[in-house]
Amino acid sequence: MQVHTIGDGAPEVAVVGAVHGDEPCGARAIDRFLDTDPDVDRPVKLIVANERALDRGVRYIDADLNRSLPGDPDSDQYEERLAAELMAEVEGCTALGIHSTVSYDRAFANVAYLNERKRELVAHLSVEAVVDFSVVSDGRSVELPRFVDIEAGKQGSEAAVDNAHDCLLAFLRTTDVLPGDPPAPDPDFYQVTAPIHKEPTRTYRFLGENFERVEPGETFATVDGGPLTADEEFWPVLMSDEGHRVLFGYRSQYRGPLSAVHSTTDSHTERIADDVTTD
């Protein structure tokens, strides 16, 4: 794991890239930012998390890092040990994680258990949508009370690097690391309601578009050439033919612009915070 600290003092802001080794846009955006020799108003950590997987161009070595949190320093699995190191690095920090996807070419933000701090962060990122993954977030970084993620675009694309860099700058302006006003796009807000699983032995084809409404009765995909029909309206998120072996994507509901959505508080968020800060 690479940890670059810029500025004097103990950082309370962090950016994390390459949690998944086959998603290089975060590491490249961090490198682009570091190449500018930035002058910061407060210290920040820039973390390239899973170097070993990044070097091999694979998602992970032993286990998915983003599903191994808070980790175990004594584990036999590389990513579980790495997860414990990563949590130690981001403890006490407001953090942005940078990811990419095979299913969508524009940037959007991911949250869970939306609170006022997370609302402030995602409201000023260069994204067109915010997705609430609370119902399926178990063990992921977005559960943490001051951690948000972005999906920067198509995996391996230059556009994803550009989007990641734009969001990195916006995040650092929002957290007062950099001077200047961040954007305020008032992105659309979607709430995931359920995953759509797939069987690895069958062939799936997605016929719709992510973030576009699927009507009741509409055939939104095929399975082995047969129709997969919606029983009620939903908005697809991270839905694609390829990518995840057993996950086709997610159903979500559109809740309106972020500015119209109330923040939530949840005892689960407090429990996760306690888990991370307890030895």
Q: What would you note in describing this structure?
A:
There is one protein chain. The protein has 279 residues and is α/β, with parallel strands linked by helices. The protein has 2 domains: 2-187 and 259-277, Aminopeptidase, CATH 3.40.630.10; 193-254, OB fold (Dihydrolipoamide Acetyltransferase, E2P) (Beta Barrel), CATH 2.40.50. The protein contains 6 helices and 13 strands. The chain has helices spanning 25-35, 51-56, 78-90, 116-123, 158-174, 267-277; strands at residues 2-6, 13-17, 44-48, 94-101, 108-111, 129-132, 147-154, 188-197, 204-206, 219-223, 226-229, 235-237, 247-257. The strands form 2 sheets. The chain has a 10-stranded mixed beta sheet with strand order 1-3-2-4-7-5-6-8-13-12, covered by helices on one side. The chain has a 3-stranded antiparallel beta sheet with strand order 9-10-11, with no helix packed on it. Helix 4 links the parallel strand 5 (108-111) and strand 6. Helix 1 crosses helix 5. The longest helix has 17 residues, at 158-174. The radius of gyration is 18 Å and the shape is globular. The relative contact order is 0.15. Mean pLDDT is 93; it is low at 266-279.
